[in-house]
Write a structure and sequence with these properties.
About 40% of the residues lie in helices and about 25% in strands. With about 270 residues, the chain is of the alpha/beta class. The protein has a single domain, classed as 3-Layer(aba) Sandwich (Rossmann fold). Helix 1 packs parallel to helix 4 and helix 2 runs parallel beside helix 10.
């Protein structure tokens, strides 16, 4: 790992340490957060079968891990933020049931150090954790040693172009923000900490994951459902938001449109060695 990458993932871990206590309230349980997460969950249930052992990257407070574990998947969930892992463990112990989950404090950039008893059946990363990583090649290489041949890796990342974002900020006269993703890089402040964000093009991701993985499918997440900063609008237009969810189900997988959502959901298959 180069020095810049090490600094950024350390900053990201520190940033999310600071917001761990309020993250669920602000995003997980928000109207937009739930609408977008539901779209990812539908695919995760189709890709990973009950009984399969699955690795989660940047698990946050463990919402996805608990959802899948409650439905029979065995999850090993990792995050760079110690505070996020603490919140996830506390929730797991407090809630009855919950299935089989192991939480680990481990950054995406440290995956190669994960002890491996046997290969995972697959792996996933939800909601932009991998946008905090500039070079995904080492992560792809690590996943290649962790996931069995034929296993799946599902990634939900911020897209390079978001139609909602362009329209949202142009209407407000904020042209710079409207097109901020096109450069491929920006910065964000989380918990008062500045972190760098990279908006990876799909072709860049394909190159990073070759030759170990082949891209099998992609679709938009949040094509009509807006980004999280439109939460106030969404709360006042619940029926419209429900309609947008339905439209996403119909149109989000179509060519061109699948690359214009707030996020893009990519499904890779581990190639045979």
């Amino acid at each position: 790992m180069n020095e810049a990458a090490s600094i950024n993932y350390s900053a990201a871990g520190k940033a999310f340490d600071r917001v761990a206590g309020t993250y669920d309230e602000v995003f997980t349980y928000s109207a937009i957060g739930q609408a977008q997460r539901k779209q990812v969950w539908e695919r995760l249930l189709e890709v990973f079968a009950p009984g399969e052992r699955v690795l989660e990257l940047n698990c946050g407070t463990g919402e996805d891990a608990r959802f899948l574990a409650e439905r029979g998947r065995r999850i090993v969930a990792c995050d760079a933020s110690a505070a996020m892992i603490e919140v996830a463990e506390t929730r797991r112990k407090r809630e009855e049931g919950g299935g089989e989950i192991t939480f680990l404090r481990l950054a995406n950039e440290e995956l190669a150090s994960l002890p491996l008893e046997r290969p995972f059946d697959g792996a996933y990363s939800n909601f932009s954790g991998l946008n905090c990583v500039q070079d995904l090649g080492p992560i792809a290489r690590a996943l290649a040693s962790l996931v069995r041949p034929g296993g799946h890796v599902v990634m939900c990342l911020w897209s390079r172009v978001c139609a909602w974002e362009v329209a949202w900020y142009l209407v407000r006269g904020e042209g710079k923000k409207a097109f901020r993703r096109l450069s491929g890089k920006s910065t964000a402040r989380v918990g008062g900490v500045r972190i760098e964000i990279w908006y990876h093009a799909v072709r860049e991701l394909q190159r990073a994951f070759a030759p170990w993985f082949a891209l099998e499918r992609r679709r938009a997440v949040g094509l009509f459902v807006p980004p999280s900063y439109a939460e106030k609008w969404a709360r006042g237009h619940e029926r419209t938001l429900r309609a947008f969810e339905g439209w996403d189900g119909v149109f989000a997988g179509l060519p061109i449109l699948r690359d214009l959502g707030d996020h893009v959901l990519l499904e890779f298959t581990r190639c045979n060695p």
